[in-house]
# Entry
Amino acid sequence: MQDVAIVGVGCTPVGEPWDKSLREIAVDSTWNALDDAGTDEVDGLIVGNMSSGNFIDQESLGSLIADYGGLGNISAFKVEGACGSAGAAFKAGVMAVASGYHDVVCVTGVEKMTDVVGNSATKILANACDREYEAIHGVTFVGLNAMIMKRYMHDHKVTREQISTFPVNSHKNGVKNPNAMFRREISLDTVLNSPMVADPLTVMDCAPICDGAASVILTTRERAREFTDTPVIIKGCSVKVDTIGVHDRATVTSMAATKAAAKDAFAQAKMEPKDIQTAELHDAFSIMGVIGLEDLGFVPAGKGAKFAADGEIAIGGKLPCCTMGGLKARGHPVGATGVYQIVELAKNIRGDGVIDVENGIAQNIGGTGSTVSVAILGRDD
Amino acid sequence: MKTIKDVGIVGYGAYVPMYRIKNSDIARVWGNDPVRVPVKEKSVPGPDEDACTIACEAAKNSLLRAGIDPHSLGAVWVGTESKPYAVKPTATIVAEVIGATPAINAADWEFACKAGTEALQGAFGYVGSGMAPYALAIGVDTAQGQPADALEYTAAAGGAGFIVGPAEESLAHYEGSYSFVTDTPDFWRRQHEHYPKHASRFTGTPAYFYHVTNATRRMCDELGKEPNDYDYVIFHQPNTKFPMAAAKMLGVDKEKVIPGLISPYIGNTYAGSSLVGLAAVFDVASPGESVLCVSYGSGAGSDVFSFTVTEKITEVRDKAPNLKSYVGRRLEIDYATYARYRGKIRM
Amino acid sequence: MPSSVPRHWRENIKRYRLLGTKCASCGTIHYPRRTVCPSCKARELEEYQFKGSGKIYSYTIIRSPPEGYEFCKPYAAALIELEEGEIVTAQLTDCNFDDLEIGMPVESVIRRMFAYGESGIIVYGYKFRPILPRM
# Structure
């Protein structure tokens, strides 16, 4: 197994690009990353995407993006793990290079969600959970997370106010990210008093429906300097699963898949949570950020909300989180999110981000915690 | 009419949705006198309820009281004029829900408000002839009342199911019954129409009263009884006035009608109407007491049944919720919410 | 929206009656039903009938429903801890939102879950309601 490095990153601005199709944003992002790596050639393309078949009636994204990207007859296919698709695609890319199957691989996460009208996006997103035994009951994806939050508040005696500091932090960080969908600060009152989507989650506790694509170019650590002076090394990378349904979890208020993936990634990196300098958490809903802090081992169970409310997740705090806006402010184009996180983390590490760190962790969640990927990145030292 | 084998009712169960709309609110919306209304309030099914879901709960309650294996049922028959599907039986869904499939006869019966008693009459015949050990007959409706029509005040939702079985297991012994029909178009709903039409005052004397009184008198003659010999008398109850007037015509004391007169509180549950009344009577009757149940269905006809309550009633009564529990569970809604729930707003 | 008939038909009986499975080897019960026991990997499982009563483990009010569920918006959804210990996801019906709380006893009922428009099939299944007060 060879060590793997990120030698190029790229993405499109997250938002509602009405004039751009899925293939256009995916190709834009892929070429942004290729340009960043200073190359026009890869021998593998791995696409992370949740639901193009439902959102735009298009499958076969490996072919589509390689074709319209002018990448030729390369190896290309899609990896799916709901909102964790891009994190899973990233792992597939890392495996492809580490194993020697491929020399240079592009991982592109992409989602075009805004082509559907009305509440069909809500229905499609609910495909991330168990269609026959959760979604069939009209329980939305937000609803499932709301029930996790309700139980969390009950078990840990934590208030909405403490949990909802997550979106406030993410919005503050999003201001400085030119690719973020929302570049304005919000107050805690705004979060608490915005319309309820699924009690106790308000619209401002939830990541938006949006479009976006993000890409990274991977090669071996050995070859990395051919492309860049600032390669970012994949120190640990793991994807683990849990039950598809929340109702079958051993614990509803924490994610066994995050814990397992974190354990694996930390072991690969030979690191511990205390060594980590920044975290890109999957804050699709405020509560997910809180539980992420706990499951990744930064704080004990039940203490995540207080840690956030105390300002420790802010830039300048003990563990800056979601430094470029997270899922809430940068936006959450579901199947692309995991690669956006890697792009942002890599930038912070290699010196063109918003904070100066040597390492960091990214956590990408699919479903309600049914597929979780954890990646630890660091400088090449 | 009498059966070959000695039979009776071995289990019963009712259901009424929890939503209510006051007659005064309906009158307010249509500019009518909010005081001179046919009933106080009527039940309204929730947005996730229909004749099938109501039948399911009534069926479950009747099974709880009967204490029999659902597979021993030979029939599940649902009488209703508010079938969720115009074509596709409600009864197969009910049979599947209660775990009675597949060796069973299942069908939906239609005869306006007497579809339920028609099914019950059939069940007595089915079990009484020895074709099946038990049969379940349900009368249920989520009645459709055209906005602003006189019937909108009473068109309600509810139902009751009765399991017919051997006399020795009965909570009420079947003594005889009668069916009386003529071609009398007092109320109807044509195919593909949302709401029924009616012939106004013609629904009275030549329709309801003619069939109800004739059917009752004829059965009583066959059994050598007088209507007022019974301890409880239940009539089809489209409102409060008609059953009380029928009682007067047949010489039945008012007090004997009151225990089974539920329409003042929940309205007219159509195919459920007299059967919900019968369930209410079984909730309070004592062993040895006699019960006369008279249905009426437009189009038109009347089924009449004669029962004597047995000792078993005291054992099984509390095994399922009584009617009072459902009638007492009420959430008042306004006309706008009612219009939404009942699909009266066409978009 | 065209009706997806076989998909619902094959699940109907389980949804109507809360039929799950029980592992013949380790005795673990499951709802929804399974073909491999997640506790011991045994593949011999028996049908198991759940009683249908339980209590609220967690709940929410769905104010932004998915396509097809707007007819009863807003509605409550919950994780129900069944008497047997399994947790199931379901809607709560016939309830006052302000009365809901974790631990509240509930019982299952059959309701309309959704319909494929005015002309398609109607899908029935379990929902839960606060235990009917007996009078």
The longest strand of chain A covers residues 232-241. The two ends of chain A are 19 Å apart (CA to CA).
